[in-house]
Each structure stands twice: as structure tokens, then as C-alpha cells.
Amino acid sequence: MANLYEKVMAELLGHNENNIISDHICAPYDPLQNYQAQVAITYQSFLQSKRTGNQRAQLWYAYYLGKILENIPPEQRTACIKQLIRYYTTATVRTYYIFRKWGTSLIDKTTNLTVPMIYGLKKKDYQSIINYLY
Questions:
Q1: Which residue from 70, 60, 72 is spatially nearest to 90, judged by alpha carbons?
Q2: Out of 46, 74, 101, 126, which residue is the most buried by the measure of CB atoms under 10 Å away?
Q3: What is the residue extent of each domain of the chain?
Q4: What's the rounded Cα separation, in Å, for the pair 86 and 25?
Q5: What pTM does this model have?
Q6: How many CB atoms lie within 10 A of CB 50?
């Protein structure tokens, strides 16, 4: 039985170039909005995709949410993080760094990768994924 790290790596490394790829999901916010509004809108889109079971959309919205959280000024970051529970803060930031490294085009190519899988990675395994040399 493969451990969580092996499952995530298999998803990232084993993508099939012949997969039919649909258009990626665009960020649900306007970049001119303030950061709290961007976080709120993206978080709501993420939760909606979770309720509807759309794993691909969950990964996209987790990526966008992590991107916002990691690129806002520190003095505004605290207020934005308060809108989320710790689980989602960690999961979305991890998702952002994984797909920033591996490329967002992989989001559409993964078939079994989920946000809970990314969250569940041990810290050393997560570090190995974002530092992997391919």
C-alpha cells in the first residue's frame, strides 16, 4: 500500500500528456479588489467546489487562495488568515507552493490528487515534493 507521499508523487510525475485538458479555472476575484475581499471570494468558491465534489476546482481555488495569502503584505495577511480555519490556511498554501513548483497545468491532469491529501503530507514529505528536482 502506497503512503500519502508516494500517492502525491505518482499524481505529479505520472500525468499523461494525452489526457484531454479542459480550460483552467480562472481566479474568481478581481485583482483590483482589496485582499480581504479576494480571500473571501476565493474561499467561498473553494467551499462551493468542495460541497459539489469538484476536486479539480478545489485544487484551482486552493492554489489561488494560497497565492493570495503568500503574496500579500504581512500587515494585511493576519486579517485575511482570520477568515479561514488553520486547516484551509495550511492546505491552500501547500497547494500553491506545489503547483507553483510543478506548474499549474498539472492541476487539470491529476485524477486522484485532493486538497486533503496535500494537507495530510508529513512536513518532510511536503518539503521533498516542493524541492524535488525533475
A1: 70
A2: 46
A3: 4-11+28-128
A4: 24
A5: 0.88
A6: 18
CA distance 13 to 10: 5
Helix axes 86-102, 35-52, angle to 10 degrees: 90
CA distances from 3 to 7, 92, 115, 124 (A): 6, 21, 16, 13
In single-letter form, the type of residue at position 11 comes to E
* Whether the Cβ atoms of residue 18 and residue 109 lie closer than 8 Å to each other: no
Q: For residue 30, what is the enclosing H or E element?
A: none
Sequence-ordered alpha helix ranges (H) in the chain: 4-13, 35-52, 55-71, 74-81, 86-102, 105-109, 115-120, 123-130
pLDDT in tens, 67-113: 999 999 999 999 999 999 999 999 999 999 999 999 999 999 888 99
Tell me the pLDDT band of 13, cut-offs 50, 70 and 90: confident
Residue-wise pLDDT for 34-59, tens only, equals: 999 999 999 999 999 999 999 999 99
> Could you tell me which of 73, 60, 7, 74 has the C-alpha nearest to residue 29?
60
